[in-house]
Amino acid sequence: MGFLVRAGCGSTPVGPEMDMNAVGRNELNRTAKILLDGDQASDIKDAYRRLEDLVLQVEVGPDIATDLAAQAALLTTLNTGHRAMLGGVEVDIASNPELTLSWARGRTMADAIGEFGGTVVDGLDPSLPTLRIAMPSPCRQHQRRLQLDLTWNGWCGGVTEAVGAEPCEPAIPLAGIVAGALGVSEIFQHMVGSSPVAGRRTVGLSLWRPDLDWRSPEAFGPAPQYLPNGVWLLGLGHLGQANAWSIGSLPYAHPEELEVFLVDFDVIVEANRSTGLLTTQADVGRSKTRVVQQCLETLGHRTRLVERRFDEFVMPHTTEPKLALAGFDSAEPRRALGEKFWRVVDAGLGAGSTGYLDMLIHSFPSQLTPMTAFCDAERVERQPVSAYQAEIRHRIEKGDQPEGARCGVIDLAGATAAASFVGAIAGALSVADLLRILHDGQQYVSINLDLRSPGTGFTAFTEGVNQPINPGYTAASRKALPAE
To answer: Considering 187, 219, 251, which residue would you say is the last residue of a domain?
Structure first.
């Protein structure tokens, strides 16, 4: 029997109440931008309407009560799903246990579902796509049009069509994040028609050995013993908040032993709500550093703020952490990474109606340097697609001057198309890089992943620079570890 609870979302979607003629770069939903760039919407209002028609269903079984990876999968599904699918995320739960994952510790599952953007319902619609978590009952599986099971094992997370074929094995929370975000990715791609096979396949990823098949025993990885006790988060937008989401999911035995340096100069705008995993409506206008600080300190971690642009003059003191995760949206701050850190992991995302599914993770030091890895790319000036041309006409009809209407829409066209579930996977990959260092795992120059075909990502080994380092560490909670 399900529990019926109607709870408010942590980040309410932008609906038709917004004056679409007034939407600017700082207001435009970055996931709606995917539809505009792909000419899948006639104008901005139509793009929002299409997202509002998307509803994701989730069915949760009783096993979630004792499985941190399952809890991470559920919260990531909610947190990314409601930002991409503005029709909402509806969740049918078999029980209502108290959760233990750090982001929802001490809250009942029903309360956590409301907090992270979902609605608990009593029963699901068989015509809508459904993700299943933690071994729910198989009794209704044959009635559903589209259904995927989330699964994990060790450092591996994925989704499978074969409902209940393989039970989930003990796994780290990052594996649950990957499973949840991949599930949302598959459903989203299927619903917007961007992939003929998405939602009809089994896909996954190993965070221990991303170069191997995620179902290979060599890809499962060891039970983590140690976690970093200090890290810099450079940039706190889409990728920076995804990094913080993964860090906050790690099972620290003593959360106060982690110190996080938060570097950003900007404030939250309306557009950030569509991709920022820690951003809510109430945060618009607040500085990004203060938003992330509040979230991490609520978990018990310590923070330091650096509220300025990252450049060649920002670097760690001898007593400060030497690990860093970078999440910038341009090449200039990346080139300033230099050799300041013992290990810095930089994540970059693609753009456009299909490129938004691409990610490239660089780690330094390696055979590359930031200056060579992030050389300037040639900019190509393109005419707006028909959706933007229609938007220009609409604004002129509303009374805007032609030149002002064109300039405003050209500025919109230059905004980056993005989806929160892509950043969530990039964040898990970035944080996993630091964990591999602490457990003598393989280091990589780069990991190139395309969510249109997640099983074919290109990876390159880092050769000749796997020097032992002691970046500082603290203990992982033994209660939260997968078995050896």
So the answer is: 219
User: Coil, strand, or helix at residue 75?
Assistant: helix
**Amino acid of residue 110:** A
- pTM exceeds 0.70: yes
Contact 232, 325 (CB under 8 A): yes
Token pair listed for 265: 């100069």
Which helix H or strand E contains 361, and what residues bound it? strand 358-364
- For 166-170, the CB contacts below 8 A with 24+ separation are 167/135, 168/63, 168/67, 168/69, 168/70, 168/134, 168/135, 169/220, 169/482, 170/67, 170/69, 170/481, 170/482, 170/483
Say what the pLDDT of residue 7 is.
33
Query: Residues 210, 231: one domain?
Result: no
Structural domain contains residue 327: yes
E strand segments, 56-215:
56-60, 89-93, 118-120, 130-133, 147-153, 156-160, 203-206
CATH number of domain containing 334: 3.40.50.720
Residues 201-258 pLDDT 10s? 999 999 999 999 999 999 999 999 999 999 999 999 999 999 999 999 999 999 999 9
In terms of domains, do 203 and 235 share one? no
**Domain C-terminal end among 219, 234, 258:** 219
Q: Using alpha carbons, select from 295, 372, 303, 305 the residue that is nearest to residue 338.
A: 372
CA distance 280 to 69: 24
Look at the chain and report how many structural domains it folds into.
2
Q: 355: domain range?
A: 226-378+417-480
Lowest-confidence region among 112-116, 216-220, 475-479: 475-479
Q: What are the structure tokens assigned to 31, written together?
A: 């996931």
